Amino acid sequence: MIDRKIETDVLVIGGGGGGLRAAVAAHDTGAKVLVLSKGIVGKSGLTQTAVTGFQVALGYADPRDNPAVHYADSMKGSYGLADGELVEIFTREGIDAFKDIEDFGARFDRDSDGSLIQRKLDSSQTYARSVKKGDALGTPIMQALRRQTNKRKIGRLHEVFVTKILKDDDKVAGAVGVDFRTGEILQIKAGAIIIAAGGAGELFPVNSNTPDSTGDGYVLALEAGADLVDMEFILMLGHAVLHPRAVRGVLFTFQYLLPKGARQLYNSDGETFLAKYDPEGSNNPARHIYARAIYGEVRAGRGSLHGGAYFDPGSVTEKTLLESLPSQTKYLESFGVDMTKPLEVGVAAHYMCGGIKIDADAQSTLKGLFAVGEVSGGPHGGGRIGGNSLTEILVFGKRAGDAAAELALTQREISMDLKQVNTASKSLLKHLKEDRNGKRPNEIKKNLQEIMNENVGVVRNENGLKSAVKSIKKIISTDLNEMSLSNRERVANYDWIEALEVSFMLRLGQVLAGAAMMRAESRGAHYREDFPKQNDSEWLKNILIRKKNEVLEFEAKPVNKWQFG
Amino acid sequence: METIEITLFRYDPKVDLEGKEVSYEISTDGPISVLQAIRRVYQKKDASLSFRNSDCRRGVCGICSMMVDGRRKLTCMCLAKHGMVVGPPPNRRVIKDLVFETD
User: Fold this and answer.
1) What residues make up the domain containing B17?
2) What total of structural domains would you count in chain B?
3) What is the domain-level CATH number for residue A454?
4) Residue A32 and residue A151: Cα distance in Å, rounded?
5) Structural contact between residues B43 and A442, judged by C-beta atoms closer than 8 angstroms
6) Which of A79, A152, A212, A549 is least surrounded, with the fewest CB atoms within 10 Å of its CB?
7) What CATH number is associated with residue A254?
8) What's the pLDDT tens digit per position in B4-47?
9) Which residues lie below 8 Å from residue A145, measured CB to CB, with a gap of 6+?
10) pLDDT of residue B69
11) In the predicted structure, residue B57 carries a pLDDT above the cut 90
12) Which helix (H) or strand (E) holds A310?
């Protein structure tokens, strides 16, 4: 049933920033590397869309800033749940990672005297720490990484969707996937695998992610036997554009305009409301507070026309807009939005704070399986402050590449288990069987998005979470088995790809709802209206999730106590 | 709700000797991008339509670039209008419908 067999030392799943950084490092350590992506390697993924920030404690804007302050900000923003060892690593090594990416050719904005410009997004940063390049940080980083990948002639495969991690005893042996363009089933033998497959925003109807962010990576790791962690923490933002429909979900980082004369968000009564939702009373609070505040106002009947809040640029001029947020302003204007008039913004799913639990080498609890970027868990705990993601993917991308290459080059020969290969291949092809006449993938996806939005979104409670778990279980046992496709062709059949994605999304939905149900408190990106307070005496714990004998296990474990330095 | 007609290039290598243009009527709740219109055809009209779905949807990646009324455009960055014709760029080998060779 296998159409094509490939061998490599290190397989990287995902061609965004984390994946390419890992690929470059693994190559430079001497390994044969193959990067593949469900989309286009180097062009798909979320990194390129980064607009919020890139935090590096270089101390240009304020000489009092350093990695220790960045560490403290990040730990506070994680609500005490991040793995301190990992946070120390990315705040310290962020400085070298920044120098590396500059050496790779990325350029950032500097003052006339040559010092880097650093700015501050919100109250989660003690000092202005985000370097900038206009407002499109992902572009220079991806350009530089693409150039390095090309220069090294690193192997890449576009539009290959991995659906199974293969094992040899207790470590990884490779993967099985499908090539979208040809419909061929591929078997890839690899000594080490780095998952850099991004997040899961598509589980929610309004999200800031790319449309292929369906959470495949988490489920691949979980089913291979690796632990996930902190999966209840889904960062929802309140600065997504809601209207017009054509741009819905795209982020507009208006926080940067507040010091320049813009008015803070207001509701349909014309009242500002953010400070009353922030325990610290800040009028520009951390990002997840925005989402909760807008949600609260909408629920109280004070929402904007399309279910959000209003942002008024006030005295901010077109010139300032183009200086501060050039790419976002031009993008919105191309759809006819008048940027000098009030804009409706609201809640969008943005980032999974948890993921595949990693150690200092970015290795998961399964030997030979590494994870980088949004799909990994541990660096951010209960919340991620804006601008830490780019820092983290570059630091742990390098670490994962180094360690994966080292492992692949030194371990004994791995053997492929034919039975696993055949099972994986069969489960890929079963979607194309003729005797199905159930719902279409797209209908099931829509149904799941509604369940998630209603019960596992900004505000949660026990009844809602229970009903989500129950509904998803039912969809898996009924609709998923009967799911039918419009055609059974293998070549470029997007309906088939969506069927595979939906199957991943449903399994991930169970994990998210299950973890959110277990955490009987509110903390960071997780808010339970039936337990509205943070409970440090019982819940300074991470929830670990693993699959044993086909059953999900949730374990609450006290946090890793760590001291910086 | 408003109804617009959009014409898409269709080509199935198994059946067709050459590509053809097929028109679809879709309803929209306000202005949508050409890319969203293509997705809507897939969702509501014909799920056998092949297209790419790994784009950034905000004018950065270039994956969604196609011919719109004879001009190469990022389909995520232009508004869908009644009567528009969308297809792959010339000189690219078409794999199926709106999926064509990239490099």
Assistant:
1) 2-95
2) 1
3) 1.20.58.100
4) 15
5) yes
6) A549
7) 3.90.700.10
8) 999 999 999 999 999 999 999 999 988 899 999 999 999 999 99
9) A17, A20, A21, A24, A42, A101, A104
10) 98
11) no
12) strand A309-312
CB contact under 8 A, A158 and B102: yes
Closest CA to B10 of B2, B22, B23, B1: B22
Q: State the pLDDT confidence band at B103, using cuts at 50, 70 and 90.
A: low
B7, part of any domain? yes
Position A65 scores a pLDDT of: 98
Question: Is residue B101 a part of any domain in this protein?
Answer: no
Residue owning tokens 């030392």: A9
Say whether B60 and A334 touch across the interface (CB within 8 A): no
Is residue A495 in a domain? Answer: yes
Q: What is the pLDDT of residue A412?
A: 86
- A181 CB near a chain B CB, below 8 Å? yes
Low-confidence ranges of chain A (pLDDT < 50): none
Determine contact: A209 vs chain B, CB below 8 A: no
- The domain in which residue A548 lies consists of 427-558
Residue B35 is part of a domain; what is its CATH number?
Answer: 3.10.20.30
**B73 falls within a domain:** yes
Q: How far is CA B32 from the centre of its chain?
A: 13
The pLDDT score that the predictor gives to residue A309 is: 97
Whether A489 has its CB under 8 Å from any CB of chain B: the answer is yes
CB pairs under 8 A between A and B: 110
Biggest CA-to-CA distance, chain A: 70
Which chain B residue's Cα is nearest to A158? B102
Burial of A434 (0-12, 13-18, 19+ CB in 10 A): exposed
Q: Is there a contact between B42 and A43 if contact means CB atoms under 8 Å apart? A: no
Instruction: Answer for the pair A203, A215: CB distance below 8 angstroms, yes or no.
Output: yes
The per-residue pLDDT for range B63-77, each reduced to its tens digit, is 999 999 999 999 999
Q: Could you give phi then psi for residue A386, rounded to 5 degrees?
A: -60, 130
With beta carbons under 8 A apart, name residues in chain A contacting B36.
245-246
What pLDDT sits at residue A384? 95
A554 & A431 share domain: yes
For residue A209, the chain B residue with the least C-alpha distance is B56
Does B89 lie at the interface with A, CB-CB under 8 angstroms? no
The last residue of one of the domains, among A350, A369, A397, is A350
Contact A245 B30 (CB under 8 A): yes
Tally of CA atoms within 13 A in the half-sphere of A167 that contains its CB: 13
DSSP A516-555: HHH--S-BTTB-BTTB-S--HHHH-EEEEEEEETTEEEEE
Give a yes or no: residue A117 inside a domain: no
A360 in a domain, yes or no? Answer: no
In chain A, how many domains are there? 2
What integer pLDDT is reported at residue A244 of this predicted model?
Answer: 86
Q: Is the N-terminal amide bond of A244 cis, ω within 30° of 0?
A: yes
**CA A15 to chain CA centroid, nearest Å:** 14
Side-chain-facing half-sphere of A380: CA atoms under 13 Å? 32
Last residue of a domain, one of A325, A350, A375: A350
Nearest in space to A17 (alpha carbons), one of A110, A133, A137, A117: A137
Is residue A85 in a domain? no
Q: How far is A458 from chain B (nearest CA, A)?
A: 24
Specify the DSSP element, H or E, that contains A307.
Answer: none
Residues whose CB falls within 8 Å of the CB of residue A35, separated by 6 or more in sequence, listed in order: A12, A14, A15, A19, A20, A23, A41, A149, A154, A155, A156, A157
Q: How does DSSP classify residue A168?
A: E
Using a CB–CB cutoff of 8 Å, tell me whether A440 touches chain B: yes
Look-up: residue for tokens 């795209």? Answer: A250
Distance from CA of A410 to the nearest CA of B (A): 35
Flag whether B53 is in a domain: yes
